[in-house]
Specification:
Elements: E1 3-9, H1 13-25, E2 31-34, H2 43-46, H3 58-61, H4 77-90, E3 97-98, E4 102-109, E5 114-120, E6 125-135, E7 159-161, E8 176-180, H5 184-194, E9 199-204, E10 210-213, H6 218-226, H7 229-253, H8 255-269, H9 276-279, E11 292-295, H10 298-305, E12 308-312, E13 315-319, E14 322-325, E15 330-332, E16 335-338, E17 351-354, E18 357-358, E19 366-367, E20 371-372, E21 378-380, H11 389-409, E22 415-417, E23 427-428, H12 435-440, E24 446-447, H13 459-468, E25 476-478
Parallel strand pairs: 1-2, 1-6, 2-3, 4-17, 6-21, 7-16, 8-9, 8-16, 9-12, 10-11
Antiparallel strand pairs: 4-5, 5-6, 13-14, 14-15, 17-18, 19-20, 22-25, 23-24
């Protein structure tokens, strides 16, 4: 049976990043990457809907070891996909990817200190063993997004599509489009589709906070122009990371102030008399759910031009002519896009067992936001919810490399977080009130209320914890 030192699950943004970190820091470690789909890129290869782009600035969404060279702050999906693939080629890890290989089970054996991993390739099932298992699959189901069971769906006379599986042949030119949803996907789709559609209506049950972000970073461009690249990239990356953290902390500490600022920003970019409080003033506080960023206010421009509109009401179903609302109105549509969110699937849906006992992730506690109590030689790359995904995943990959080096240097084979005692209070793993988080809460691990069990959503603090902190600290047992 084939054996590798490290098996990475997933060849998306975090999986390729993890492989590059390992190649740079532990070049002698044998490694393989298994990817359930047939291409590198993960989310950025899967999502092909109109206008798909990042909702984090690219200087922080890009890797710390390979600067993003593009000028756009919020880049389009194609550019991000090519950036990931170019990075994989540059570091030679593209040759390590085994495509169309879905991990369905992983079994840990303490006697041999190895994982036996079962892989389904569609045509057959195979196994390999590894010393360390690194899950970089994110937390949502790739096979299908979340679509509510709308009554009358079969009666609708037009096309119904979910952004997660966008049909390449769909033509909405000159047609009426209804986009159901108010999150990052919806606010991206509306201005993109409005360019060719007869009209686009964003139908939302409740508003989201929307903030316009300039497509260029003037200060960042200046820094990159003045300083050498090896200084400019970390400087701009830190600038953007700290700015994002400051906005998040301000939102949590002074929510009413930030709410007023966001409302002012929306009102400034919309026509006089527009009902801003109806369509762009949520009931919840900023960052209870993610704030939606739009480049150069493109959503507000589409609304102001009359090419798009917003309706805030409850959807009760679909009928032949469009989307039926609780108010009794119908939004006329030829195409309905259900931008209604994700289906969460913890750690790729892999069935994990430790010495014959099945692991229920809901019973575990996350250690430093990257390992799980009672599960040896296992790490997960989960990014920030309040900042760039890659900021955290880069730190996790660095820490995994340091942890593996520590094991090697001391002749150790196993490391496992031990569940904290009752004095550590359990908290939800993801500190958001978004629908997809609420639907999956019972299936996710917990986190604690104190370090190292607390996930702080704080980049500077995690730099100290994961990049500079001890790898053999409290909470771990080595053998």
């Amino acid at each position: 049976m084939e054996h590798v030192d490290v098996l990475i699950v997933g060849a998306g943004l975090s999986g390729i990043g993890a492989a590059c970190h390992l190649r740079r820091r532990l070049p002698s470690a044998s490694m393989a990457i298994v990817e359930a789909r047939s291409a590198i890129g993960g989310t950025w290869d899967l999502f092909r809907y109109p206008g798909v782009r990042s909702d984090s600035d690219m200087l922080t969404l890009g890797y710390s070891f390979r600067p993003w060279r593009g000028s756009a702050v919020l880049a389009d999906g194609t550019s991000i996909r090519e950036y990931i693939r170019d990075t994989a080629r540059e570091y030679g890890v593209d040759r390590l990817v085994r495509f169309d290989s879905k991990v369905v089970a992983a079994s840990w054996d303490s006697a041999s200190a190895t994982w036996t991993v079962t892989i389904d390739t569609g045509a057959e099932t195979s196994t390999l063993t590894c010393g360390f298992l690194f899950s970089c699959t994110g937390y949502y189901r790739y096979e299908a997004g979340y679509t509510p069971d709308f009554p009358g769906l079969a009666e609708f006379g037009g096309a119904v599509v979910h952004p997660q599986h966008w049909p390449a042949e769909l033509d909405w030119t000159g047609k009426r489009v209804a986009v159901i949803g108010s999150g990052a996907t919806a606010v991206t789709l509306v201005p993109a589709m409005a360019e060719a559609a007869a009209h686009v209506t964003m139908v939302q049950r409740s508003p989201s906070y929307v903030l316009s972000l300039g497509s260029r970073d003037g200060l960042g461009d200046l820094v990159r122009k003045v300083l050498p690249a090896r200084f400019a990239h970390p400087a701009v990356r830190w600038k953007n990371a700290l700015a994002g953290l400051a906005f998040y902390r301000l939102s949590r500490r002074f929510p009413d102030l930030v709410r007023r600022v966001l409302r002012w920003g929306a009102r400034k970019q919309l026509p006089e008399g527009y009902p801003v409080d109806t369509h762009f003033r949520p009931d919840y506080a900023p960052w209870d759910q993610r704030v939606c960023f739009v480049p150069d206010g493109d959503l507000f421009r589409a609304i102001s031009s009359g090419k798009a509109s917003v309706v805030t009401d409850k959807v009760i179903g679909l009928s032949r002519d469009g989307v039926d609302l609780a108010s009794g109105e119908t939004v006329p549509a030829d195409v309905v896009v259900t931008a209604t969110g994700l289906s969460v699937l913890p750690f790729g849906g892999v069935e994990v067992t430790v010495d014959g006992e099945r692991v229920d992730f809901a019973d575990t506690v996350a250690y430093k936001g990257m390992m799980l109590s009672g599960v040896p030689n296992f790490a997960v790359a989960i990014g920030y919810t309040n900042a760039s995904w890659t900021l955290k995943c880069d730190l996790v990959a660095e820490h995994v490399c340091r942890l593996l080096a520590h094991l090697r240097e001391r002749g150790l084979r196993t490391v496992v977080p031990v569940e904290p005692d009752g004095s550590v209070r359990r908290l939800p793993f993801i500190d958001l009130q978004s629908g997809y988080v609420k639907r999956a809460g019972a299936a996710l691990p917990s986190q604690g209320d104190v370090a190292p069990w607390r996930l702080h959503q704080n980049y500077p603090r995690d730099v100290l914890l994961l990049r500079r902190g001890r790898v053999d600290g409290e909470g771990l047992v080595f053998s």
